Each structure stands twice: as C-alpha cells, then as structure tokens.
Amino acid sequence: MAFVVVPTSAITCAYSISRSSSRQSSQGYDSKTMRKGLSNTRTEQFFTQSRRTIYNNKYNSKRSATNNNKNKSFYVNAAKASSGGKFVVGGNWKCNGSIESIEKLCATLNSGKITADVEIICAPPMVYIDRVQSKLKPPYQVAAQNCWVGKGGAFTGEVSAEMLKDANIPWVILGHSERRSLCGETNEFVGLKTKYALDTGVKVVACIGESLAQREAGNTLKVCFAQLQAIADCVSEKDWDNIIIAYEPVWAIGTGKVATPEQAQDVHAGVRKWMSENVSAAVASKVRIQYGGSVNAGNCDELAQKPDIDGFLVGGASLDGDAFVKICNSAAHSK
Ligand code: PEP
Fold first, then answer.
1. pLDDT tens digit string along 15-58?
2. Contact 25, 58 (CB under 8 A)
3. Which of 38, 164, 246, 331 allows an S-S link to 118, with CB 3.0 to 4.6 Å?
4. Domain ranges in the chain?
5. Across 105-225, where does the E strand assignment appear?
6. What are the catalytic residues?
7. pTM for this structure?
C-alpha cells in the first residue's frame, strides 16, 4: 500500500507553485516572484520530505505493478461488462450562478424525471453548496469543486476536506484542468489532495486530460498516464473504490468541440489498461471513467454507448436543468 505524508502547511502551496513554474509563466504568472516570495528553509525541508515520500511511493507502486503484471489477464474493451458501478453523471457548475438562478436550477432538476439507473453529483460554487444540498432531492448528491491539500488552518480562501466531511458533502472534484492551468496545481499536488480527501472520508472525482498541443504532438496517453501515476503514487488500491476518474480533454472543455465517441473510447480504454497494469486488474475492471468536454443533450446518447464510458462530467450543459436531466437519462444507453 502506498503511504503518503501530507504536509499541513502553506509550504505545500509553494511546492505546487514552483513545480509548475513553466506552465504558469506561459500563462502570464510571475512564477519567479511567487517562488521567491514563498521560498524559505521550510520549503526546502518540504521538498526533501516530499521527494522522499514520492520516491517511496513510486518504488512501492512499481513493485506492486510488477506483481500485478505477473498474473495479468486483462481485457481492454470488455470493460463495461465488468465496470462495477453505476453510470455516473456530474454537473460542474463552476463559478456560475446566483441565489435566484441556482434555486431555479434546483427546482427544474427536482421536477425532471430521472428514469435511468444513474448516480448524479452536482457541484455548485462553494458558497451555495449548503443551499443546493437542502433543495435537491435524491438521487441528486452534491460535490465541492475543490478542497485544500491538508488539515485546515491559516489558508485564506481555502476549504478543508474536514469541513466538507463535517457539512456532509460526500464528493469533491480535484485536478480539474482549470485549476491545473489557472491555479498552478501540479500532478503531484493533485495526488496529495486526492489522498487527503479520501483519508478524511470525502470521495473524489479526479480529472485528467491533455491539451490540444499535447494531443497534436501524440502525447495524449502519456499526459493522462502521468496524471494518473501521480494519484496512484499517493493512494492505496482500496482507495480507488472511492475515486471516479474524469477524462476531460482540455481542448473540448467549454469549447463546444466534443471528442468523437471513438476518440473518447480510445482514451478510456487506454486508461483502463493503464490501471490494470499499474494498479490492479480488479481496480481497472470496476473504476468508473467519466468523459467530460462539451457533453450536451444532443451528443450524450451516442457517447454513453461506448463500452468504456461510465458517465459524464458536464460543465456548461449542467446549468440547463432540462438538458442535464436528459444527459443523466442517457445512462439508459450505456452498454
Ligand atoms: C468541465 O468543465 O468539466 C466541462 C466538461 O465543461 P463543458 O461541459 O462546458 O465542456
């Protein structure tokens, strides 16, 4: 089992920022200044501790992968038959809405007919979660869109996994590409956050996905596997019971450019194969892999038929109650 020491100081943030400096620079952040401002002896101590932890985890995970490979009898594309859980649809409301619009959305969702066997998770902005949770009726559950990497404390603007747990919020979305690219969250940071949330009792929707440049360079799977590896380095095999993987190609998010069902299926099958070879065949066969990126009421049925697509993470269309209900009911097309 992988073990990780989760640091509980702001130094973690310094770590995240400096490890992602090149990306931030390309996004116009003054990463050098940020790094300088945050750099101190404790940062160095953190780096040493963190690298050691990550090295140990990598070593352990490689060792367990070798063991798994010895008895590997995995079948890519036979996944849906064996993919354990229910089709699962998430609605990522991002930083949108007002009390008025959110109450309207809840009312539309509650009055829509969910006819398929589907798990549904709505992620409102943090300030509205409590209100949404009290308004939405089953089968709707709620999620936070982010949480802090460790125990709460002097981390202005953050929300801890303990708080989510305390407020009965069962899920958190972690590693969304907007947080990776706009807030400088590195693969390692997402791995640490995932582990901390799980250990606190909050289940995780873990997002992965490549940019357009990475896809065009032929690096789609390489990028997704590195993102997954950073999570696998931190979590135990058992932890995967409480993780949903959301494959969200960055070029398809909010652009109206949906991946073709074949493109999505190819990556999902690759991810499942990677899980089999690097975590375990058992986990690969039951982990749910959502597709996210411009899913809407018109394209959901076709995507849902692909054998390795176990659900959707929906941004824009989740703000339209009727469309979202239609997307949830596309679970009926799942094979
Ligand atoms: C998302 O942000 O998770 C997402 C998939 O957005 P959209 O559906 O708007 O592309």
1. 333 333 333 333 322 333 223 323 333 333 433 344 444 444 44
2. no
3. 331
4. 11-333
5. 118-123, 140-144, 171-174, 203-208
6. 176, 248
7. 0.80
